[in-house]
Amino acid sequence: MKIAHLFGEESYAKEIILSAGDVIGKHVHDFDHISVALKGSFYIKIGGVTRFVKAPNAIKVQAGVEHEVTAITDAVWLCTHATDCKDADEIDNVLTRKTA
After folding, report:
1. Per-residue pLDDT for 54 more than 70?
2. Is the pLDDT of residue 32 over 90?
3. How confident is the model at residue 99 (pLDDT cuts 50, 70, 90)?
4. For all residues of the chain together, what is the average pLDDT?
């Protein structure tokens, strides 16, 4: 996976370029956020329910709900968040809680 960090005024987007079969592992956020399938197709598992998503498509993920994304094809995924953090090395620690 290749990751690009994009910082704006009180906003952040993580662009993730995936190869077929790559997985964005299970994790949780303490706030709602929007994720966008920009290219390709995916399985997204949200709260234990898996659905097929094909780009272009936007998905709202509720706060506190575990989610995981698997690329079916080579693909691009974009997660957007409201935050004041501007540190690429700390952003995942600020925004994400990993799960078991």
Report:
1. yes
2. yes
3. confident
4. 95
Distance CA 45, CA 96 (A): 16
What pLDDT does 100 receive?
Answer: 62
**Token digits for 65?**
């709900």
80-91 burial by CB neighbour count: b if 16+ within 10 A, else e?
Answer: ebeeeeeeeeeb
Q: How far, in Å, CA of 80 to CA of 12, rounded? A: 6
The second-level CATH assignment, the architecture, of 2-98 is Sandwich (2.60)
C-alpha closest to that of 71 among 19, 26, 29: 19
- The residue extents of the domains of the chain are 2-98
Count the residues in the chain: 100
Q: Buried b vs exposed e over 30-54: b needs ≥16 C-beta within 10 Å? A: eeebebbbbbbbbebebeeeeeebe
Higher pLDDT, 64 or 97: 64
Sheet arrangement for strand 41-46: 49-54, 41-46, 67-71, 23-28, 97-98
